[in-house]
């Protein structure tokens, strides 16, 4: 199954690391334009490597990378390791502090059909191409994707906890309110145990499908150029990933609601309700702010906020058999598939997943209050409030070989960029460390 390798990580120098909050960056699509501009104003922020802004973005990133290497802005660790990465966080309205425990390492960039790394969503080719080009020019990875393995015995957490007794660097509070802590494991015996355990596991890709496919595209291009001479051990075979245990109770998946910016054919509110009625029981509610609580834990139940009125809508079980999309039962049983089929397709006439992905009339919004406010301000016609997807549902879909509707999962908190960088440059090959940690090729 999954082959992982330690890496000689690149990190900000000790002086800068003492103020690491100024240099880390979030994933590009989870912050506002105003927050992004503040990051770009800092010439040493990692966003200049992860999402460069220039006429030639990849070229600009490469020039900045070489400058940072030469001036010692970033430095490479002398020894290879597996990097423990903990995120401490709280959820809104809860006093409990969670700690998501995981580690960053290199993982072989497996093709999807090898069924070692499993996906749960589709990607946009243009975005994959952008990530592949950036990787090809810089041979540098600035933010780890997020993968999930399952270990009910929690064996690796013992080693991670021990490493965390001597942290390398930590944030005070990142953009999402989490505290991030990094440590390293460089004991060869322990690293081998990590390798042995992951060698018996599949990995579900939670976050970072475009970056992972960018690594796949780059690896495939290098293999083609090698014309049969590749050994499979070259650095470009590997990808930087943050791995967490799917059996842990600190793995949170938050819901992403659907905001209907328009109703096709100038439908009135009453006409929309009439179109929903054959498929859903529709119950008016007194207070829209109660919708998440009203639908919580109920299968195929949604909140609908329309024209200042709140409704609980729940699929009539007998109509579920009408869901005839060409996908697996695991996907058909998802709340979000029910919503997309019976609301977007049946009620609104947006036929099929491909048309729905490209339809500009739907927006994906994580903040519940924002959904209500945008409807009240007239920026949207309706809001569809949903429950979160469970980890069991994610695993069932991935193992079925299918993908979920777009924006189905929001794993929280997100990893941050700039905490640890990874080089897959050609000069990383051929050292004694890579020979020592080599894993026999799988048949």
Helix vs. strand class: alpha+beta
Q: Please, how many helices?
A: 16
Q: Helix proportion of residues, in percent? A: 25-40%
Corresponding CATH architecture of the largest domain: Alpha-Beta Complex
Low-confidence stretches: none
Compute the CA-based radius of gyration: 23 Å
CATH topology descriptor of the largest domain: Conserved hypothetical protein from pyrococcus furiosus pfu- 392566-001, ParB domain
Number of DSSP strand runs: 21
Determine the strand fraction and express it as a percent band.
15-25%
What is the mean predicted local confidence, pLDDT? 94
The CATH homologous superfamily of the largest domain is called Conserved hypothetical protein from pyrococcus furiosus pfu- 392566-001, ParB domain
Output the CATH class name of the largest domain: Alpha Beta
Overall domain count: 2
Distance between the termini: 10 Å
Protein described:
By secondary structure, the chain is of the alpha+beta class. It folds into 2 domains: 4-252 and 411-436, Conserved hypothetical protein from pyrococcus furiosus pfu- 392566-001, ParB domain; 256-387, 2-Layer Sandwich (Conserved hypothetical protein from pyrococcus furiosus pfu- 392566-001, domain 2), CATH 3.30.1760. Helices cover 32% and strands 22% of the residues. It contains 16 helices and 21 strands. It has helices spanning 14-17, 33-40, 47-50, 57-71, 125-138, 155-163, 188-198, 209-226, 269-276, 291-295, 329-332, 335-347, 353-358, 368-376, 391-400, 432-436, and strands spanning 4-5, 10-12, 74-76, 82-89, 98-108, 117-118, 140-141, 145-149, 169-170, 179-185, 203-207, 238-245, 252-254, 257-260, 280-285, 301-306, 309-315, 362-365, 382-385, 410-412, 422-423. Strands 1, 4, 5, 6, 8, 9, 10, 11 and 12 form a 9-stranded mixed sheet that branches. Strands 15-17-16-19-14-18 form a 6-stranded antiparallel sheet, with helices on both faces. A two-stranded antiparallel sheet has the order 2-3. Helix 4 (57-71) packs parallel to helix 5 (125-138). The longest helix is centred in the middle third of the chain and has 18 residues, at 209-226. The protein is globular and about 70 Å long. The model has no long low-confidence stretch (mean pLDDT 94).
């Amino acid at each position: 199954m999954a082959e992982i390798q330690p890496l000689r990580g690149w990190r900000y120098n000790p002086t800068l690391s003492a103020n690491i909050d100024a240099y880390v960056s979030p994933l590009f699509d989870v912050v506002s334009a105003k927050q992004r501009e503040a990051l770009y104003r800092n010439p040493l922020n990692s966003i200049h490597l992860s999402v460069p802004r220039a006429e030639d973005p990849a070229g600009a990133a490469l020039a900045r990378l070489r400058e940072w290497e030469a001036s010692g802005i970033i430095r490479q660790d002398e020894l290879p390791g597996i990097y423990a990465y903990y995120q401490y966080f709280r959820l809104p309205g809860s006093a409990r502090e969670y700690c998501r425990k995981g580690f960053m390492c290199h993982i072989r960039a497996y093709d999807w059909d090898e069924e070692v790394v499993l996906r749960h969503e589709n990607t946009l080719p243009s975005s994959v191409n952008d990530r592949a080009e950036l990787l090809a020019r810089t041979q540098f990875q600035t933010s780890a994707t997020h993968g999930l393995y399952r270990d009910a015995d929690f064996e690796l957490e013992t080693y991670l906890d021990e490493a965390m007794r001597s942290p390398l660097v930590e944030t005070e509070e990142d953009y999402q309110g989490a505290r991030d802590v990094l440590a390293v494991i460089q004991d060869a015996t322990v690293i081998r145990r990590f390798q042995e355990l992951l060698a018996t596991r599949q990995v579900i890709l939670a976050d970072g499908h475009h970056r992972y496919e960018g690594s796949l595209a780059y690896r495939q291009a290098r293999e083609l150029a090698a014309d049969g001479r590749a050994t499979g051990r070259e650095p470009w075979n590997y990808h930087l990933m943050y791995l967490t245990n799917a059996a842990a109770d600190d793995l949170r998946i938050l819901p992403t609601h659907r905001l209907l910016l328009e109703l096709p054919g100038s439908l009135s509110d009453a006409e929309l309700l009439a179109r929903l009625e054959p498929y859903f029981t529709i119950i008016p509610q007194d207070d829209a702010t109660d919708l998440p609580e009203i639908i919580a834990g109920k299968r195929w139940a949604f909140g609908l906020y329309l024209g200042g009125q709140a409704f609980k809508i729940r699929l009539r079980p007998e109509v579920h058999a009408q869901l005839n999309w060409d996908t697996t039962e695991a996907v058909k049983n998802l709340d979000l598939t029910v919503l997309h089929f019976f609301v977007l397709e049946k009620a609104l006439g947006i036929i099929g997943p491909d048309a729905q992905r490209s339809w500009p009339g739907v927006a994906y919004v994580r903040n519940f209050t924002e959904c209500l406010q945008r409807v009240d301000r007239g920026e949207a016609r309706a809001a569809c409030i949903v429950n979160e997807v469970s980890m069991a549902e994610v695993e069932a879909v991935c193992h079925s070989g299918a993908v979920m509707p777009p924006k189905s999962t929001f794993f929280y908190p997100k990893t941050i960029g700039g905490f640890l960088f990874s080089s897959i440059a050609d000069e990383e090959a051929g050292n004694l460390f890579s020979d020592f940690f080599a894993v026999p090729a799988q048949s």
